[in-house]
Amino acid sequence: MSPIFDWFFQQYQGVPTHIIILEIIGVVLGLLSAWFSKQDNILIYPTGILSTAIFVYILAFYGLLGDLVINAYYFSMSIYGWYIWTRKIDAEHYTPITTTSLKEKQICVFIFVATLIFIFAIYKFFDKWNSWTAYVDTLTTAIFFVAMWLLARKKLENWSFLLIGNIISLPLYFYKGLIFTSFQFLLFVIISIYGYRAWKKNLNKPETSLLN
Length: 212
Known about the structure:
Blueprint (H helix, E strand, L loop, with lengths): L2 H8 L6 H22 L5 H19 L2 H22 L15 H24 L6 H21 L5 H19 L2 H23 L11
Helix pairs in contact: 2-3, 2-8, 3-4, 4-6, 5-6, 6-7, 7-8
């Protein structure tokens, strides 16, 4: 094998085979969910929930507590988002894409600060606040918590938060040895850019279908 392949698979030495397989499946489902999100398609939620369930298990194995909580939170936001996205505002139209109001921006600030405090407390409780990855993990968790709430509310700004979070997460997962997942975040960065553009074109437009 080439040095690149040798290095790539060396990152998985000592990792159980089922963890590697689950990571690949979770990545594929996560990419599908991100793509459906870009398309403003309700299938974002079933694919996202399955990916979330897989990564909760994987992240517990690697001890990435902040990201584990992200996925647990994402599950609850998926249920909430599924409801918001399928809710009709009249006889024919579903919830449209909009921008955040002043009140919603205030809620975002509250979610961000509360998440920082909460994740810090988790790391301290388990005595794992001892690495730079804990600081980065806490920051990205707060960013993604805001992004997921905005996504569930169908707010355009969710893509800005997702873009920032994905850029920061890419090297974190690469450092942790989750190579497939780090490549997933690279693709997430690209999808975030195109997702923002796609949603901006449909801003405030009435929606008559959930399967775009």
